[in-house]
Every structure is written in C-alpha cells, then in structure tokens.
Structures
1.
Amino acid sequence: MLIDVVCPGCHKRFQVSEKFAGKTGPCPACKTVIQVPTKEQQVVIHAPEEFGPKDRKGRAVLKPIERTEVRISPVVVVLIVAGSLAALLVAFVLGRAFSEGSVPRPLLAAGALLLAPPLVLGGYTFLRNDELEPYRGISLGIRVSICAVIYAGLWGLYTGLVGYLLGGRVEVWSLVFIAPMLIGAGATASFSCLDLDFGNAAVHYCLYLLITIVMRLVMGLSPF
C-alpha cells in the first residue's frame, strides 16, 4: 500500500511505501525534511450519504427513477414521410375529381381535421424539449388530439373571418393582421398542450399551416 505525502516546502505530491509510515526524510524535490504520515493519519474521502429510508443493513430502500431517453426511430420517420405522400396523393385526386375551386367546404374541414393529428405528433417528435420527460400513451394521445382540434379550428376561424369581414375575398394587407394572430393562437395551443418552447411551438403550428397550404395548392385551390 502506498501513502500520499505532500511536502510542506514545495507542496509537491508524491507517494511512498507504507514501510516509511511515521518516519522522516528529505523531499525528493526540495530536500525539505518531512515526516511521512501513518496509515491512520491518511485522509479518507467518503461518498455522500444517501437520503431516504434505509433497511437494517443501511442500504437505500428507494432507488432513483431513471429517465429513459426517447429517440426517433427510422420506422417513425418512414411512417411520417409515407403518410405525407399519401395525403398529397389524396389531395391531388380530390383536386381532379372536382372542378377548379369547387371542393366542398365540409370535405376541406374533414381533411384539415384528419391531417392534424399525425402532423401534431410528428412535429412533437422532432421539436419537443429533450430536457423534459416526453409524454406517452393516453396522455400523449389526449394532448395531441386537443392540439389537433385547435389547429383545424383555426382554419375554420380564418375562413369565417374572411367570409364575414372580407366577403370571401382575401387581400394581402389582411394577411398582415390575420397571420400573426393565427400563428400566436396556434403556438399558444402547442405550448400549452405539449410543453414546447414557445419558439418551437410557433414552428410546430407553422409546419401544420404550411403543409395544409401545400395541400390546398395541390387541390387547385388558392393558398388562403
């Protein structure tokens, strides 16, 4: 066993054999005469005491909860891409099935609502805060559903505002006022439902908004 020694003159640290315990001798660096401590004088660093209840042998009864890292699997990525392509194909078919600009509003509303849950879930998978425990199971399903309904409802609110205030005709100047309100409302929804950072929450809603606009263009409708 080796004994740690610190020279009081030059503060050099070195180790000597335990057979020199309690003896004196010169420092190999500065030749200051030092006394080697005994084994009993050695400083022992103990691990911090564990908090919480213990059994009769002093062992901790409760174990800390280990956080499970959630990583994006290739299967999820493939499903998101495949679902997006399938939705675009459906939009293309609907655009050809109806004359230009005549897709029924109930069908558009149903499409906006059906498209929202997978987009909300996919966006949450990529944009969630890695420092927080992710939502799973029923809790995740409820939060995604609420956020999806709000996202689709914002399209309905926008349509109602355009129809009531602007007579169904969208002007560029009106988007300057309406778009920030929609993005703010959508960001607040994903911020509240999914605990995203507010900046990521705005990106999350804009992702849904962008994809639904692309769907409208594929169907031959105006983007707004």
2.
Amino acid sequence: MTFFRADLHCHTTCSDGSLKPTEIIKLAIKNGLNALSITDHDCIDAYQSAMPLAQELGLKLISGVEFSSLLGDESVHILGYSFALQNPIIQTFCLKHRQRRELRNAEILFLLDKNGMPISEEELLATAGTADQTSQRSVIGRPHIAKLMVQKGYVADVREAFNKFIGEGRPCYSKGNFFTPQETIDVIQKAKGFAIIAHPHLINNSQTISKLLHMHFDGIECYYSRFTIDAQMRWIKIATQKNWLMTGGSDFHGDIKPMVSLGCSWVDEERFNILQKRFLENQALESQ
C-alpha cells in the first residue's frame, strides 16, 4: 500500500536553497513524493522552470511562497498557498520584498565594512549566482552574506557569522524596512490564497504566538521538519479548535540544512486537495 505525501515547504536557489527548481522536482519524485509546493523566501521565480517539469513528470505542484514579516522585534514567517502564479498582487509584493532586501543587504555590508570585514555588492551578487537557467537572480539575503564571510575567512562557518555578527541584535545586523504580519495576510488573501503561520514551533515568545493566533490566518503549519508528533500536537489542537487548515513540510534547503531531507515532513492527500482545488480555481480565473 502506498501513501500519498505532499511536502509543502521547501526552498530552491531562487532564495536560500542549494538546488535549482528543476533539481528539486526530480528529487521530490526520487524521494517518493506525490506533490510539492515550493516556498522560496519572498519570491515565486522557481515556478517558471519547475511547473513545466512537474507537469511533464506527473508531480502535483501548487503555488507557494514564504514571506518575511516583523511583529514588534520578532521575525514572523508567513506561508502563502494556492494563489494564481500570474496574480499581480503577489508579483508586486514579491518585487517590494526584493527591493527591501537589496536595501537591507547594503546596510549589512556597510556595517561589516566598518567592522573590518569588507564585502562588495559585486562579490555578493557573484556568490548568490542565478536562480536557474534564466537571467533572474536569486533573492539574496543574510545566508548568502554569511556564506561569503566564510569564503573570505572572516568566520569559520555560517553559524558563527550569525551568532557573532549578522544575527538579530549583533553588531552588523540590520532590521531594514519590513512588512507586518497583517499586511502580509491581507496581500495573500486579496490574491485569493491561503495565509498560514509558518513553523510556529520555532517562535519562543508566547506573546508573539498569542498575537498571531488572534489574527485572521487561514491555517497553521502543524507538521514541520523533524519534530515529533508529540511536539506538534499543540498546533494540531489549536488548528482544530480554530477550524484552520493544517499544513506541513520539511523546510528543505539542501546543503544549507543537510540534516533535513525533502519529504521528511508532509501532509496527506485530503489536506493537499484543499489547497490544490483553490490553486486550480485561481489559475483558471486568472487566465480568463
């Protein structure tokens, strides 16, 4: 007997993953997955090459994205699903995030230079490379800066880069401009998508959790990475009480998080079908 498995949280070279969009489609099939959603940070560029290949190879693929936001000083990630890929509301919001990241990266590079660790924008662009066979660049963020810090010998590894210099509260950290969770929810829902709280397991501030649970999300990521069922029961109970969607995924990044394999966390066919139905409806409406 075979079980239907859909990993709804993974990243490609379009943001901070190590596999190209086409490579992650092939890996999903190799790992026995039936369906996938690519949730790159603040962009949906992966679908340009991933969708045609998924259709060719028979892998079910629905739209997804992981948007960054701030609630006070707390970083909150929000997953968006099932919007039409050509929806202008989502595309515009992704562009705003790209511009936000570019300004923030420049501020971090300025602070690194002041602390005796110069990195040029040209070096950063070269390290990030391109997303796929296309000319579009990756969404570039702190993981790319950390990788370059290692290459230039400023730190021993990426963990040290974050812990000592570019992590929250560190001397070379910049909050930059940001969007709130409510702004992000509004964008996703105006695009007729589902707005989901990403990996609540990683949010330690109880006040932040309480505030998020009073917002009008559509669901919560209950099944995440390698957490046990016992560790996830809190979120399953909350989703049940609020009648929210339950999503789940590995948060696969490839070589950046080698301990996390694609498909190690997933949802069943019933939960996936709810998202796919909305996605197909939105795709059809947008193409009219």
